[in-house]
Amino acid sequence: MNEREGPENGELTHKQRHQFSQMLEKLYQCCTDRQVYVSEKFEIPQAELRCLLLFGQERYLTAKGIAARLGIARSRVTMLVNGLVDKGFISKVPDPADSRVVLLALTPAGQKAQRDVTSMMDTMRDEILNAIDPERRTALLQSLDTLKTAMERVSEALE
Amino acid sequence: MNEREGPENGELTHKQRHQFSQMLEKLYQCCTDRQVYVSEKFEIPQAELRCLLLFGQERYLTAKGIAARLGIARSRVTMLVNGLVDKGFISKVPDPADSRVVLLALTPAGQKAQRDVTSMMDTMRDEILNAIDPERRTALLQSLDTLKTAMERVSEALE
DNA sequence: AATATTAGTACACACCATGAACGAACGCGA
DNA sequence: TCGCGTTCGTTCATGGTGTGTACTAATATT
């Protein structure tokens, strides 16, 4: 019972451990809930949404590129793409330079859907940030960066 | 292009928005990866792990209670429980006071599995926290608390 | 020219979650 | 006590998410 709250000598306290785990779990849950909310609002499955939101600066995407960026299998991309094609959000274009490749482009309907989804997500993000004191906001961003770096370091050590 | 980095008048900057989204996404991904890692290490599906980790102070849990605490359907609990029963981690006991109810208890093997899983998760959490300067740790915990509060507030407004 | 590699697809499988329907058991009010 | 409403866990069908395998056609490499 000689655990201190403050960093007396740099050692982790039991309370810090517990707080960290609890808060991280809660934050994770909130993020998950937010994703579910958006998916349901637009009636687009989450994985399809992630795919839809990849379309940006490039004129075309490919299944292989999408798989790499989303970190999923190519076969899975086929399913997602077909779902979005069925919804009229993307179209398939043959690649004139390599007929194995299918080029994927956003349709106008897909562009609108993407805009709407992005707008909703931005609004929700802004609401979160606006619920935080501007003074605390900078500290928050710094802390998140610190945490991100620490987590990435630990993730790398797992492989 | 007159966006400032600091909180000049409390307004959100474009950079803050972008940073926040990017970091949150990355943090989310790290947390997801960590869960996948633990699940694979023990060869226990994630949902079963979450169920296994619920057993703690109480002598018995019920399917209904597990469903409420995990936020999932009772029918799903049946599947998870059966998976853990098959692995020898939990046992079913009839409730003498209400024969509709199935009481669920950790077996010795289940207790060991739970200990091992918890230990691994604690180690990983400690590695993350130890990768952070003790001075920054307190600030981090405060910021996480601030963020949690903000997120919970925004989540409530969605319902 | 022959062989190796690549891209996307179809398919089977496992995990994850929902809701509906069900039978058995319990609770409640007349 | 009895009839009805509610509850509990289970079964089942369905949809979402992801993997890996096998395949064909096309391309790259030797």
Description:
The structure is a homodimer of 159-residue chains. The first copy, chain A, is mostly helical and 159 residues long. Chain A has helices spanning 14-42, 46-52, 63-70, 74-86, 108-130, 134-157, and strands at 61-62, 90-94, 102-106. The first copy, chain A, has a three-stranded antiparallel sheet. In chain A, a hairpin with a 7-residue loop joins strand 2 and strand 3. Chains A and B meet through helix 1, helix 5 and helix 6 of A and helix 1, helix 5 and helix 6 of B. The first copy, chain A, binds a DNA duplex (30 and 30 nucleotides) through helix 2 and helix 4.
Mean pLDDT of chain A comes to 91
CATH topology of chain A: Arc Repressor Mutant, subunit A
Oligomeric category: homodimer
| CATH structural architecture of chain A | Orthogonal Bundle
Helix content of chain A: 55-70%
Helix-strand layout with pairing:
The structure is a homodimer of 159-residue chains.
Chain A: H1 14-42, H2 46-52, E1 61-62, H3 63-70, H4 74-86, E2 90-94, E3 102-106, H5 108-130, H6 134-157
Antiparallel strand pairs in A: 1-3, 2-3
The structure holds a DNA duplex (30 and 30 nucleotides).
Short characterization:
With 159 residues, chain A is mainly alpha-helical.
Keywords:
homodimer, mainly alpha, Arc Repressor Mutant, subunit A, 6 helices, 3 strands, DNA-binding
